[in-house]
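Collaborator request, handled under Task 6.
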Amino acid sequence: MKYCRFCGHPNPDEAVFCGKCGKKLNLNTQKNGSWVDSLNDYVGNSRPVDLNWKVLFSDVFKKHSKEEAEMIFICGTSMTTPDRSQVSKDWPHPWLYSRVLLMFVIAFALLWICCSVFGNPNALPGLIVVGSFAVPLATMILFMEVNAWRNVSMYEVVRIFLVGGCASLVTTLFLFSIYSVDELDFFGAIMVGLIEEIGKMVIVYLFLRYFGKLSILTGMLVGAAVGAGFAAFESAGYALRPLVEFLQYSGYAAAYGQQIDSGQMIDAINQTIFLRGFLAPGGHVAWAAISGAALVIAAKARGEISTNLFTDSKFLRLFIIPVVLHALWDSPLSAIGADIFLVPILLVIFVWIIVLILINMGLSEVAEQQVIN
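Structure tokens returned to the collaborator:
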């Protein structure tokens, strides 16, 4: 049996065109026993997986009007949320996230000129914040564009990013106060992954329960917004460390009549921002998005969203993925090929395969809801 990825209609295996909508069936999406198919089955997608990753970039280099951007930013209000029958079940073609990233890059470059060329220390806070927020925010906008339901407004997304991101940090620190991790060996990495993913997941759960919008794509967006806030504020903290160390050492150096080159401090800040920004799309943002999808999938199966989800097998089956990926990221295994960041890059690729599978499931959910209605 083949399922149409446009309308979800079941078709015979020998069919070339969908018997309901008439569109051509993608023969390349059929199962062939690969590890991706096994992963697809594990995630819980009952239909052949379509890793249509090219659509995430296909519209990036096309020309878009200001009105198109405004239509994305004003979605999700009582006046602009589309009716279910008008929701597109086709693969989305996000592009606005690239423009948001470009704006942050330009702002970062200008602030860098203020600091490095003109030696103005007043621009340092802006350099750290803009650089740390750039990629997490752009990735969050990508998930907003992928949310075909268009039922979460930009106001709500920003609120989840700010309040949810900070709340997840507080929750995580509270959990660390109960169980402290002193060393990042394999066990320590597992505990860090478990604690930080629980900290984010709890906040994602609270927002989903508050909004009551139970769809996979919306759950991923809420999770991505919380994860983006967590990642942005955490990265800003790491980027601040070279400045703090510079101020400490400069005081000692002044006592002995020595001077420290502030350029080294700027370089250290930039290296932290570039590295964490490069890896950010496959870190906290994607991990929390998976947790959001896991909560929604379990809640829809139970018919309610409650704390009972935390022990639900459907939820745990998916939630274990970001926990394990996070643990591997922090574990001693990350030292393998450390000069080219081999392990983190492989984990980024792996987590986005999971994300694409969940997007498949989210789009199938749209098609199923339209068939029901």
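The cover message to the collaborator said: "The first helix runs from residue 35 to 43. The chain is about 65% helix and 0% strand. Please let us know whether this matches your experimental observations."
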